[in-house]
Amino acid sequence: MDKPIRSANEAAEQIVRWSDEQNISICFDKAGKMKSCPIGSSGACCSNCHVGPCRLIGSNAEEEATGVCGASLPSIVARNFLRKVVSGTAAHSDHARDMAFTLLAVATGEAKDFRIADEHKLFKMADILEINHQGRDVMEVAKDVATTLIDDFGRQRGEINYLKRAPQKTQERWKKWGVIPRGVDREVCEGMHRTHMGVDHDPDNLLLNAVKVALADGWAGSMISTDISDVLFGTPHPMRGKAGFGMFKDDEVNIVVHGHEPTLAEMIVLMADDPEMQEYARSKGAAGINLGGMCCTANEILMRHGIPTAGGFTNQELAILTGKVDAMTVDVQCIMPALVKLSERFHTKVVTTSDKAKFTGATHVGYEEHRAAEIAKEIIKLAVDNFPNRKKNGYTATDQQDLVAGFSQEYIEYMQGGRMRASFRPLNDAIQVGRIRGVVGLAGCDNPRVPAQGLHRYLAKEFIKSDVLVVSTGCGSHACQAAGYMTPEMALEHAGPGLKEVCEAIGIPPILPLGSCVDNSRILTILTAMAAEGGLSEEIGGMPGVGIAPEWMSEKALAIGTYFAASGVPVIFGGESPVGASNEVTRIMSETWYERFKGAFHFEPDPEKIFDMALKYIDAARDALKL
Ligand code: BF8
């Protein structure tokens, strides 16, 4: 019997099939063999104390089942959800903290290999933070901006700085429901406390806390990461690039930069062009050094340098299976521990670079920001030294798709009116007159439990056909890039007539990649700018926009979905619901949150239903706005 399709990315699927022939077990094969636990996956298992784990099952579980301590199913489901949001928020925010300390180290001269790449953006941040920058030394301003943002992590009272960027009405909703986050660490800590055995048992109260923690992610952790990355490495603007495994070269040293924090990745990009490194590569018989990105790091270096992307989450093992990767550097988040064992069959060196994330059997080169260039060179040399060890025992893939990446809020504003008249007016107008029906954010992971990347592809195509502009982030972008959807030509061939007209007039693809997962914060600031422009909703809630993560798998995705819902965006996630065991929790997140925040959080595994539900939200918002 033919095996079902594991990846909708044709090149990826061929490598998966080859791995079957070679008896190499990778995530697709493991997902087929190991079904997810139905009790845990729906949120009905409580393992927060060692009297349990307690599994709350049965036909009347919602009303009658309890854990040994008496915890009800809704409180256990809400507690489990809150813990996941806390973890996702912690991940993004710890990344942001590192970025803020890097900015401080650059400002004080300790991180001498970095510079301020975008002063204009730094001054914009200073304005938002009410820091004077007129006539001041740039590094002094950078120091004040970094210090002010670092305060967002440890603040005990008051509120997170960037919340004031949100539309007034959105802020009022947060105040009314008591979900204003004080400091990131305080909210993460309190969320963990509330979910400890015997603390918060009211599902609505637990879920309001999830909202509060998640707002700290969206409007602090993620937004700080985005802004500081732009300041240090440049605010993205469109550039052409390539996606696909065909990026690996036979005669060059291939290095894949995988993970999330852009700092070391940026330095590896710079040092790969260093004449000393090029000469070193030649001395080992290579024609040069070829870099590729993986997961969110790929988005970061693609949109700023045009470095080719080897794809997202489910592509990471496949890259090693090509046998052409001389080194894969990894830092934090979404890195499969399976990489190390897999790499032993080939010649690839897996290099861990964060002291927070070590993998047994990997080579560790700990990153230190005051020695960034030196460490980047050390890693490149290690890859070069490994080049002669290639065994030529991998799968040769040739796929490469053209793409355009690098759409920031700043560029989208600029492209609608030039430097002097940058605005969101044309986009708002296009929505008002119906040329663009609405906007969908296609975000989140790809997942080996569905034909990977397939749900992204299906939805992206259907939305643009229906005149819905798509903005994408994270592995959603990778899925569309590998499919060849991110070119202006895609609009001509597949977009509905209204969207096509707008794309042609501005010269953009119908799907705009906004960057990595922390760059979902760009969607928040874009929606805020659209609200300020007038003619649509005056708050984020009520805009004809929907957030979708059809193949999500990480806790970060749940934090993102929650901060979007809390900011006023209806959100639909695919797959089985992690709160599906409780009707009450499902109702609070889909209905009560809609009443309170104008956003909602749904889980729906059927992609056609996701599509219909999203269009219903968009059309209902248009009706309410009388468009
Ligand atoms: O943060 S989309 S698999 S790579 S979690 Fe991870 Fe999901 Fe990809 Fe980046 Ni985001």
From TrEMBL:
Reactions catalysed, as given in the entry: CO + 2 oxidized [2Fe-2S]-[ferredoxin] + H2O = 2 reduced [2Fe-2S]-[ferredoxin] + CO2 + 2 H(+)
Protein name as annotated: Carbon monoxide dehydrogenase
Binding annotation for [Ni-4Fe-4S] cluster: 260, 296, 334, 445, 475, 517
Residues engaged in binding [4Fe-4S] cluster 2: 46, 49, 54, 69
Enzyme Commission no: 1.2.7.4
Keywords: 4Fe-4S, Iron, Iron-sulfur, Metal-binding, Nickel, Oxidoreductase
GO molecular function list: 4 iron, 4 sulfur cluster binding; anaerobic carbon-monoxide dehydrogenase activity; hydroxylamine reductase activity; nickel cation binding; peroxidase activity
Record-listed [4Fe-4S] cluster 1 binding positions: 37, 45
Cofactor(s) needed for function: [4Fe-4S] cluster
Signal peptide as annotated in the record: none
Pfam families xrefs: Prismane
Entry's Gene Ontology BP terms: generation of precursor metabolites and energy; response to hydrogen peroxide
